[in-house]
Design goal:
The protein is an all-alpha fold and 65 residues long. It contains two helices and no strands.
Amino acid sequence: MMDISIIFKIAGVGVLTAVINQILKVSGKDDIATFVTLAGIIIVLFSVTDMISDLFNTVKTLFAI
């Protein structure tokens, strides 16, 4: 079951990624900042993929497919 905590986790990853990205860009390490942003996106995508998988399993169970 989805609750509000997953939204806070995704927002936390986004804020942390944005802060680290800005710090690295100011210090002149744009290439590492890009990798940090990409890592943040991948982390969020894995958690969202897990939730979508649970949704599909629930729909299968509900409609007895």
